[in-house]
Known about the structure:
4 copies of one chain form a homotetramer. Chain A is of the alpha/beta class. Chain A is built from 6 helices and 11 strands. In chain A, α5 packs across α6 (219-253). Chain A is globular.
Amino acid sequence: MEPIIVKYVERPELKDPVLIEGLPGVGNVGKIAAEYLKDNLDTKLMVEIFSKYFPPQVLMKGDGTLYLVRNQLWYYKDPKGRNDLIFLVGDYQGMSSEGQYELSYKVLEIAKEFGVKKIFTLGGYGTGRLADKPRIFGAATNQELVKEMKEYGVYFSETEPSGGIVGAAGLLLGLGMEIFGMEGVCIMGETSGYFSDPRSAYFVVQIVKEYFDLDLDMEELKFRSEEIGEITSQLKEEEMKQESEQREDLGYIG
Amino acid sequence: MEPIIVKYVERPELKDPVLIEGLPGVGNVGKIAAEYLKDNLDTKLMVEIFSKYFPPQVLMKGDGTLYLVRNQLWYYKDPKGRNDLIFLVGDYQGMSSEGQYELSYKVLEIAKEFGVKKIFTLGGYGTGRLADKPRIFGAATNQELVKEMKEYGVYFSETEPSGGIVGAAGLLLGLGMEIFGMEGVCIMGETSGYFSDPRSAYFVVQIVKEYFDLDLDMEELKFRSEEIGEITSQLKEEEMKQESEQREDLGYIG
Amino acid sequence: MEPIIVKYVERPELKDPVLIEGLPGVGNVGKIAAEYLKDNLDTKLMVEIFSKYFPPQVLMKGDGTLYLVRNQLWYYKDPKGRNDLIFLVGDYQGMSSEGQYELSYKVLEIAKEFGVKKIFTLGGYGTGRLADKPRIFGAATNQELVKEMKEYGVYFSETEPSGGIVGAAGLLLGLGMEIFGMEGVCIMGETSGYFSDPRSAYFVVQIVKEYFDLDLDMEELKFRSEEIGEITSQLKEEEMKQESEQREDLGYIG
Amino acid sequence: MEPIIVKYVERPELKDPVLIEGLPGVGNVGKIAAEYLKDNLDTKLMVEIFSKYFPPQVLMKGDGTLYLVRNQLWYYKDPKGRNDLIFLVGDYQGMSSEGQYELSYKVLEIAKEFGVKKIFTLGGYGTGRLADKPRIFGAATNQELVKEMKEYGVYFSETEPSGGIVGAAGLLLGLGMEIFGMEGVCIMGETSGYFSDPRSAYFVVQIVKEYFDLDLDMEELKFRSEEIGEITSQLKEEEMKQESEQREDLGYIG
């Protein structure tokens, strides 16, 4: 068996395409963001990727049928004629370190075929805290991109993310830069990491939308984001209440 | 060493053969079912599979001799001339994700050689509860099979199994569909998952028997099934007794 | 890097050689036994095996120098002209299931080159109990060997070892039988499994000595065996004392 | 993807070069030592190594840009015309046993290309205790090197390190000796193993400096070493205070 099996559904001609990755990860921020973009733009499936580096698993579609876990590439033709986009989405990332490298390398090979020179990877940055408004962190392959992304409100920190970036969101940029001569940026939405976080994804998508000047309806993601926003507010209120009660309790003792 | 070593014992001519898999798994339902079918039909060994993806282990036969762990294919010639059957049985599934993929892929290659176009995989669906009568869940590669299997009493749920199907029972269908153009269905007997469950296997075998109109003596499996049925009833009675006692205890307190 | 690197130190002509394996395992019984045989017979180093399936480790010789972990084959020319012997000894077994298969397969390839048709694997059978006199269990590739080894006092059980035999001691026989057409027997000395057990190894070596009619001085191993025997007796006495005290304590309560 | 990707930045002519390794490990002693040497001698980057055996990770540079984890070789031209040096430094060692072997083997292949015949590996020897002055342990591939290194104050013990040497520091010597005909020594600075230990590294660097008669400014490492020295003294004082208090407490009881 080929370790990675690539099925080409279509081989479109693409103009200055940018690869945009969003696979499962912290708070599923990248996955939610990339799938929202894919689902709400006029995209078409171009490539399917199966691999022994994914779990040995089929998933249910809800109608009694099943499908093998996979990654997919979908393309979007930019009506304004600037950058076409290729979205990398899927059920899983590689299960092992080696699988991660092999899969990212293969995706970059495919991306190169279609002329990709720039990569956006989308992800979550887990802080363990409930934030009022999630900040959007960035990490780029070069200083020019750092400067450019700052104009879109992306925050570049000297110290964060302190552990670097693990998985496809990091590897696509690292291998892309070192082996394939591509440049790119990772856009990370702050998230508690405790649950799937469409709110953080909302702010990530906003940046992609603005950067590529996309005609994208944000309503549904905004709605899901506000739901999370309310839950977060309630959780934060309860936290504060508990803390103040504890302070009172201590007061009695003190 | 070849990662998977295939020994052909016989290369029979088979008519529209269907592959029926039953390897160790939840409640060993699939293994018990497939081995019961293999042992109680007039089957012959055709292929033996050894692999470094199995544990590095030999097992005892009970007479002082040992054998290397393996998977096997046994064939059954349908006297009615419709579908010959190939049974996949064995001591273990692959130990790693990658081994699972490699082994399922190899079995599908062999199956293709013999003309297999349809696959039945048998397994258990662990619920953590003792069921009075186990339901039989299904998951298929296409809607036609979903409809067909419903007529045999297989239950297709929108939500279950929620985690999909892991291992050979899922992979053979997923890879079979995507890479080998085969169709198939997974038949899962509900089981607690706490012990080897011939009762759940009994209902799985019944469906296979009816679907392929097999002349199969069910007596022994029925006997083992009823033993489990009695144990289950006793366990359930004790559970209920304990619960009602607890309720009484609480009554005194309340 | 070749996954397994084989260095031939010498390529001796051997007469009907038998491979005798003793690598680290339960109670180190096999390792102690095989190394005692190797050290106390007139053996010569013939092959060294390095591999990425061993741990990435060097060990100290005690004089400030180090050596890379390895397996070795040593040969013994039978002065009586019946069976020459090849001993497989080493620092480690393969670290992964796949490494175990690869290493056993490679050893069998080398053994075949030198004409090996029969294999003895030596090991420990961990019972978790301190035995007065360890029994010697066997498992063989065929009934003839079972009968033959019974005459040497090897005990073949219908049920033990219930989990089969894991590692090189099992694989060399399983792969040897299935792929290389060799026959063989595993000789397992009963051991608690709590410590390195030269006493169990002593009884294993006795059987090898008798079977091959070896002119072997057993004094040193006997001495180490008796030390263990004394420790075992003391431990057992203390166990019994504690148990009887506990019984008395319970008597007061009862 | 090639499992290990080697990028040659420069292919210098080197005179009797010695490979000096210092990768992350116990107390990061080897890493601190080798990087201090690399940074404070007039070295140039010659080779970069990327690999799927490293973690799938990019790290941050502090200016918003990222880099893929890697190992590097830097060379130093000895102005006195004796031994040029090649330093092996990097973010990680291989993640798996097999990766460790593959990476060390590849480094040795590269080293051989440039004429390396001798290897120094630098590491920490974790004792779990805070030492007043760390001893420097050694382990060499031959007796001549043992003798030679003793003159530089390296301590060769009959029993330590009792578990041998694990990882690149051991493998480079073991594989270098067995497969590439190189000789070498591992220099291990005693360290508690609880934190990064520039103090232990200081004494390791001292030995390398003296052995190769390097014109090396030790000031910065001395400063960092003294900081650790003070912390160690304070921690030891507190330990002793606590112990004496405990003894007093026990006195009251006794």
